[in-house]
Amino acid sequence: MTGRAALPRRPGAAGLLLLVATAAGPALPAPAARPAASPAGAGAGVTPPVYEFVIENGWLPMRDGVRLSVTYVRPVARAAGETFPVLFDFYPYRKDEYPDEYPTYFARRGFIMATADLRGTGSSEGHVPDREYSEQELDDAVEIIARLAGLPGSNGRVGMWGKSWGGFNSIQVAMRRPPALKAILAVMATDDLFHDDVHHMDGAFHIDQFMPAQDHENTLPQTPGYRLDEAYFRDRFEHDPWFLTYARHQRDGDFWRKNSLRWQYDRIQIPCYLIGGLLDGYRDSIPRMLENMKVPIRAVIGPYKHDWPDTGVPGPDYSWQHEAVRFWDYWLKDRDTGILDDPPLVLFMRDGHGPDAALKTTPGRWIGVDWPIPGTTWRRLYPAGGRDLRDRPGGAAAEALRYVPGSGVATGLWWGEPTGDMRPDDAGALVYDGEVLKEALEIAGLPRVRLRVSSDRPLAHWVARLEDVQPDGSVSLVAGMLLNGSQRNSRLKPELLEPGRTYDLEFDMHFTTWTYKPGHRIRLAVSNALFPMIWPTPYPMTTKLFLGVEATRIELPVVPAAAARRAPVFLPPEPQDARTDGRYIESVPWPEGFYEQTRDLWTGRTSVEWKGHGDFEVQDRRYHTWERNYYETNDGRPAESRFEGEAGRRIELPGRVLELRSTLDVRSDQTTFHITVARSVSENGTLLKHREWTDAVPREFN
Question: What strands lie across the sheet with 364-369, from one edge to the other?
Fold first, then answer.
């Protein structure tokens, strides 16, 4: 899925909007090889921003008669008969309602931009799909691509692109091989819909702000009229909540794997440009795709969370659009931009730094590498008695760990934001520290974890975190991963644990880069809880970690400096063309809003609450949005955990005020998730409809 951080909004226009802009620049050069003296990535041979453009709205009728709303940003031809490739993105994020920038950067450089609302969302007609990346959505995308290839002014070549949702469906549409689709660009997206997406993160039950927010957005009326008629209630308000669908699919299998590229890499046969972030939950897909696909790939993994790289946090930022034009020009216009001379993967190598949940700029540098990185060596470190981390196993021992269900808040909500000091989470973990380093140690890749364990209960998760202990004693998070203990042998055939039996676990942490500096220590922390990121397992318990054996260790991917190739010369971010008919008034998105953790040592209760809101205007409409998420668990009764989510929107129109509100309530006991989803819609203060869905969903290995 796919929204995270703040739901990724796409540019769009409301009503029929015609805008002509002039871009200064030299005359369009004929296709030619780039000058040899140009630095890689500097952009010689790339189409300059010489095109005027128009922005307009239209309809794309599907075969079944449903019309999808599309916004075009079209370059104006500079010569008779000139044609352009089409770049297509496809979202449920209501393109006409947000005062974001239009994709004019690409139109100025000779691309027809086409942004469409999914059927049943935004200004498109039809019924809300039955899930994300539904068969209907992917079928529609294939049909749209064929239509776009035949647009007046098109050269017949289409690229699909997008961030998060738009990256996910770009990958999945490419798997269907529509003939006119020649290349894709996927930003912050994954190839594994069960393990890496947000419903069952790391293979375990997860809830975050996306769930109540996306189900709520699916209930909003069609723009621009906002009619509350029979079709609205039938096609949008009454659609079954997606959260219930995902809660009923807690096991990996065909529901998740049918459109997951990870199990069928050969289905994509076109070039791919991939962008990820070291603080984004989807970053692991990039090394997998580089290793397993046989098509040309160029990839960048920067320091960001779930953001675009030109506005990413934490920085440093760069003009990803410039690099995208190099890619699109090469594959869609036959212009030699030097993109294939770049290394396959450009990484941001993070310098070790102190913990900082408000980090704005990450210290480090860009490097270009092949993948896997040549010369990588694996340094093995072994937990030992005395809470040490050594180069070889110590004496045999077993250390007991009492399960603290409310532990894990410092790690964050989805391995996807800057983190502060990890010592609060380490207090609920077994912690092992290496010796003070005398030389720098650089790592890049997915650290490997091997743990010999036992549990006195039939279900447990194990969490491993790789950390950096600073000279002042504070602790930075470097990488981590949770393993659902029932999936120790197979994700497809989970099995309960036999209490008291010893098991050898093997898993990789999420992708990372880091430089451990002299004077610092390497730390491994092992726990059984990751609250509120992962729903607590239901039993009070004690687990054991067995030391002094080869089966308990961590392996770090140490990279040699000689492996780095020259990275492209990234350009700084450029100002974008903002909409003139809308503005943001105030925005406090996730996770920057109100955030509070409460831990009651007397009762064992831990709670986390987050609140955010936003106000913006588009043309004669004003919007107020809000959201609240509340998590709670209890150390003595972890089965009795709960989540309360609320999302709402007030829409102020001439002569009308609409208010829509959705809530998600999830409470668990030892065997069941008790779920209630409620929706209401009011006009001018009068309640028009309220509905609730309730279900008791069995807990399956969660």
Answer: 53-61, 67-75, 112-117, 84-91, 154-163, 181-187, 272-277, 297-302, 345-350, 364-369
